[in-house]
Structures are given as C-alpha cells and as structure tokens.
Amino acid sequence: MAVPGMRLVLDGVTVERGIWSLVACGTFSEGIHLVTGLVGSGKSTLALLMAGLCPPVRGTVVREGIKNMMLSTQFPEFHITGLSVAEECASWGLDTDTVLRSARLEISGNMSPFSLSRGELKRLHFACVLSRQYDLLLLDEPFSSLDCGEKERLCRDLTSRDQGITVVFTHEQSAFPRVDRLWEIAGGELCDLGRVPDSILRWQYAPALIKRLVGAGRCPFNLTMDEIQEAACRMHGYD
Amino acid sequence: MQDARVRLGSAALLSIAAFVSIEGAFAVFLWWLIFTPHTRSVRSRSVIPGMLALIGFVAILIVISGGNGFSYFVRMALVFLIGTWLYAEQKSGDFLSVAVWAFGKRTGFDMGMTGECAMQMAESLFNDLSRIQTAMKLKGQLWGTKNIVPAGLVLIHDAMVRASDITELLAARGYRTGGTLCPGFCTRSGDLVAGICAICAFFFAFIPVSEFFILYR
Q1: Contact A156/A127 with Cβ under 8 angstroms?
Q2: CB-based contact (8 Å) between A154 and chain B?
C-alpha cells in the first residue's frame, strides 16, 4: 500500500571522487522520473546515493513516507545470491514457475543463473523486481542487455506502475516509459528539467530523433515509442 | 617499505618464523611493531574478526584433541598479521617485477603473472562479497551464519568464472609462456634494516630458546 505524499529529497547532496564531483538537489515525488546523462556523468553513483548505499560527503538524502525500496543495478549478476534459478527466485520470496512464466524463460529451475546470458538474467531479475510493489524503485540502466522487444515490454511494465516513486537512470536513446518528470546530469550537476512534455524542450543531450522533432516544432507529448511516432507523423503532415 | 624484493622476502621469512615456533611468533610481532604502520596497514578491518574467529575455532578443536591450541592461535594470528601487512603494502606489478628479477623472463614471468592474478582475485573477492551483502540487504535478508555457505559458493563460482575469462583472454592475445619486463626497484636504508631484522627473526625462530634457559638454571 503506497503512502500518500511520499517523496525523496536530495538536499545539497555532493559526491566527490578525486577531481570528479556530482551535486544533486531536488525532490522526487510519486510518478516516473527519467534521469539522463552521458556515460560517466554519475547516474549509477546517484542511484546508489538515493538507495543509501553510497554516503554523500555533503548534504542529506531524505526519504519521506518511503517504507520499502529496491535498487536494480546495471549488472543483473550483482543481485545473484542463489546457486540455481530456483534458489534465486526463493531469495526474492517468489515461486520459480511464476517468475519464469513472467520472464518468458523456458529453462529449468535447477539451472545455474550464471549459465544464463546477461539478457536472460536481466529478464529473470526484472521478473523478480517488478513482481513486488516498492515505494521507491531505482532502476540503473534497465534497458542495457535487452533486445528491442524486451525494452518495449519493460517500458509498458514501468508505465503501468501507478504507485510509488520510480526513477529510471539511463543513457538509452530509443526506448522510454511514459515519464512524468525529466532530469539531466550535466557538468557535474543534477538538473531538474521539469514535467514532461515542457521539459523535453530543455533536454540538452536528448536523443537525435527527439531533438529533430523539437527542432521542427513537433515536440512529442511524452517519450513512449507511440508518442514519438505520433510527433513524427505530425512533422510529415499526417495529422 | 619501498623495495618489493625486501618486502616479499621479509614476508616469506616472517611467515615461516611465525609458523615454526611461538618464539618466532614473538619475534615477528616485535618486527611488526617496529617496521609497519600497525593497524593502518590493514586494508579491510572488517576481515580481522572473521579470520581471528576462524583461527580461534581451529585452536579450540586442537585444545579439545589434546594439542597446544594457544600456540597455534598465536602463530597463525601472526602469519595472518604479516599477510594483511603484505596485502596492504603490495602495489600492482610488484609480484611480476620480483619474480622476473629472481627467476628470469620465462619462469619468473609466469610465476609473477600468477601472483598478480592471485592478488587481483583477492581484490575481486572483497568486491564480490560486498556486492553479495548489498544484494541480500536489498532483498531484505539479514547477513548471518545461514548465508555464509551460499555466499561462499557464489564467491567461488565468480572466482572460477573470472579465472576462466582471464585464461581465455590471455590465449586469445597469443600468450604462451614468458614475457619481457625490465624490473626497477627503489631501495631505502630503512628497507635494508627491516630485511636484516626479518632474517634475524627467521633464525631466532629455530633457536631452542627454552632449552637455553634450562641450561642456564
């Protein structure tokens, strides 16, 4: 049961590693947030920080009304604690057959999770993660290692989440869920670009297709494939 | 200690000295107090209680079976102490340089590279253990004795996979045996003093000190 008014506040949070640093301020309320940035900009670090797994050198991370949290890291191997698929499902408190059906994997529960390809492992991992409702769900590069079909399926699953705070950290250029708020890490700072679609106009490192649409004055209403296609049709006069 | 040759040689002699006799362990402890930055030389302090508990467990078993468990505990604890110091002081490439210097570019290179891989693996094991603990925490599981065996099995599996990957990578790059390296070392006067004292501690471990005191009485 989601708690009304839950939010995650980054109050002047600073992380430093040698000459590299990241400063983050902002409030993440219920809905889907997309945090974008170039490779090495600090997305994974920010995810760890928001999960409480990386202490900031300055500032505080405040979780208001958040009872449970899950961080999905970029590499699904990092989540494995069982030696078989069945053990891994059990470690999440889930039934193996249900998870395998959800992940559409035709494998035996006795198989080692390490023998799966990274894409299969990622599907298994997301089947476990998305089977539960979390107040705060942090997804670090969720689309890496997935093929186009699986990316779209994941986007649909994420879009259908109607409770809690979901934060997607990615440099993905083509597959996005329906997003409420857009954030961008640039120049060592997390910038709140605002609500979608207005924030798309301020997106510095937007994917080339979206930049082209915006340049042509056909800003998509959101970032899902359907909405980008709809904007592209408007650009070509197929209204 | 700057010179990797003196460091590795001292560690080898001190480990033997500590293992051979309780007198040797005492000499090694003195050496550790004088020539190392003490607890600052321990890279991961969280490992210490676990290792001491493991040594203590074996020591208790020895006591139960009629042996000298106390001596075992002291000697092994000192071997562990020297190991942690060596691990903390070691820099990437030290094993390779020393092995090539000592045994040449063929056998030495292979030995050095094996040592470097082992050190890299030790570092990876700490990282893997940390990420397993994080994964368990995220899943709402408490870290405890119940999780040690499954976590250990995952660690071993990860290590085997990593070793296999490194082997394939070396083979793919055309590695067969040996290699070219010109090792360079920086020796300070303090290194030599520490090395000579380590040799003294080594010989001291083999002197029957107790018999000397019996003769004295």
Answers
A1: no
A2: no
